[in-house]
Amino acid sequence: MTKKLPEFLRTYFWDVDFDKLDMDAYPKYVLSRILEYGNEKAVRWMKKNYTKDDVADVLFRLRSVSPKSANFWSVIYDIDRKKVLCLQKHYLEIRKMHWPY
């Protein structure tokens, strides 16, 4: 059985069929969107449904979260910034080559 996301999160998943999105099947995708774009209500929902380890896993494995958001969440959840993928020096240098701002 699929575990549906609450309707108020629909705005964060503009590029997929929201009605078919399963929070248990795609936890990293759901978390990355909330970490990057979520408002206060979305974050409260995230904290009730996912653990610190789930958040850390997203930050350690995905580059879809911006460095600014990743830095914020690493402070909030007391996660080692040295392990956050999008904060690695190599990634930041590549990013500046494409977007020098």
Protein architecture, described:
By secondary structure, the chain is an all-alpha fold. It contains 5 helices and no strands. Helix 1 (27-37) packs across helix 3 (52-61). The termini are far apart.
Average pLDDT over all residues: 89
Report the span from N to C terminus. 45 Å
Query: Strand portion, in percent?
Result: under 5%
Sheet having the most strands? none
User: Roughly what percent helix?
Assistant: 40-55%
Give the SSE string. Answer: HHHHH
Number of distinct helices: 5
Radius of gyration, in angstroms, nearest whole number: 14 Å
Overall morphology: globular
Number of DSSP strand runs = 0
Low-pLDDT residue intervals, each spanning 5 or more residues: none
State the assembly state of the protein chains.
single chain
| Tally of distinct domains | 1
Please identify the structural class as seen in this structure.
Answer: mainly alpha
Write out key terms for the chains shown.
mainly alpha; single chain; 101 residues
Task: Describe the secondary structure blueprint for this structure.
Layout: H1 27-37, H2 40-49, H3 52-61, H4 67-76, H5 89-98
Helix pairs in contact: 1-3
